[in-house]
């Protein structure tokens, strides 16, 4: 079971960009990679998921057209490119791996219960 760790968060002005990284302790080839976020007082929300075999990633509606998920299996790392950031994007962002290797999307959502290995999170704050 690989361990993952996020990095790349920070403070950015509205309209700005950040790229989050999710570095794994071993090969990610067998896993789907999910990105979640949790704002204070809110439930953990699925943001994006990318399968182990390619294909278009899943995005929650609020980030479509602004966020791009990718992976570099040669570097055992996944990325979340975030553009045109908004104050509502402020949260702790987590990456996680999925046993199944593919993203399970139900009712247009992904769920934390489908992911088994989580990083410690990285804070993203969007504020002027």
Tell me the helix content.
under 10%
- Helix/strand class: mainly beta
Net shape: globular
The SSE string, one letter per element, is EEEEEEEEEEE
Low confidence ranges: none
Radius of gyration: 13 Å
Textual characterization of the structure:
With 128 residues, the chain is mostly beta strands. It has strands at residues 4-7, 10-12, 18-24, 32-38, 45-50, 58-59, 67-72, 77-82, 91-98, 115-118, 122-126. Strand 7 (67-72) and strand 8 form a beta hairpin.
Structure summary:
With 128 residues, the protein is mainly beta. It is 0% helix and 45% strand.
How do the strands and helices of this protein lay out in sequence?
Elements (H helix, E strand, L loop, with lengths): L3 E4 L2 E3 L5 E7 L7 E7 L6 E6 L7 E2 L7 E6 L4 E6 L8 E8 L16 E4 L3 E5 L2
Give structural attributes.
mainly beta, 128 residues, 4-stranded antiparallel β-sheet, 0% helix, single chain, 45% strand, 7-stranded mixed β-sheet
